[in-house]
Amino acid sequence: MEEQNFSKYEKARIIGARALQISMNAPLLIKIEEDDLEKINYDAIKIAEIELDSNILPISVNKPLPLKKEEVLKRAKEKKLSDEKAEEKEAEEEQEIAKEGEIMELANPEDESGEEAPKSNSEAE
Predict the structure, then answer these.
(1) Measuring CA to CA, which residue among 57, 4, 53 is closest to residue 28?
(2) CA dist 2 to 20, 47, 66, 72, 119, Å?
(3) Which candidate in 19, 46, 49, 124 could, as Cys together with 40 as Cys, close a disulfide (CB 3.0–4.6 Å)?
(4) Could you list the mean pLDDT of each consecutive 10-residue stretch along the chain, which spans 125 residues?
(5) Is the CB of residue 84 less than 8 Å from the CB of residue 54?
(6) DSSP letter at 124?
(7) Nearest to residue 60, comparing CAs of 107, 3, 109, 122?
(8) What is the pLDDT at residue 88?
(9) Rounded distance between C-alpha atoms, residue 34 and residue 28, angstroms
(10) DSSP-assigned letters across all residues of 67-113
(11) Rounded CA gap, 36 and 19, in Å?
């Protein structure tokens, strides 16, 4: 079996999964003497670490690599306008802006002075 270098996250996952199996009374894959088991207090995590360090666990990690795409990105083609058509388009846009400006009239200071200002509390009494 090919030797794999596991990241710390992969090691934690493998040890955790194997410790769960051991705690559920799965058979040990390595012979550990009774004295050694007593030293580690029959800790499933320590037993799983020993099994991982001895390369006896039949667990492999599939590390998918990113796909290398060699597609060429295509840009949306813009239509090239001649100078005359560009000028016509600008003129149309200016006319539209002018029409919108007519709808929205500017406020004059004289118009605003005709409105009543809100009265303060002393004037209201």
Answers:
(1) 57
(2) 25, 23, 22, 37, 88
(3) 46
(4) 74 94 91 88 92 86 74 64 80 81 63 58 53
(5) no
(6) H
(7) 3
(8) 85
(9) 13
(10) P---PPP-PPPPPPPPHHHHHHHHHHHHHHHHHHHHHSPPPPHHHHH
(11) 17
Q: How many CB atoms lie within 10 A of CB 95?
A: 10
What would the CATH number be for the domain defined by 8-53?
3.90.940
Among all chains, which residue has been given the structure tokens 């596991």? 6
Tokens 């207090």 correspond to: 41
pLDDT at 44: 92
* Structure tokens that stand for 58 in this block: 């039949």
Look-up: residue for tokens 């060429």?
Answer: 72
Count CB neighbours of 51 within 10 A: 21
Alpha carbons 111 and 32: distance in angstroms, whole number: 97
Query: CA 32 to CA 102: how far, in whole Å?
Result: 92
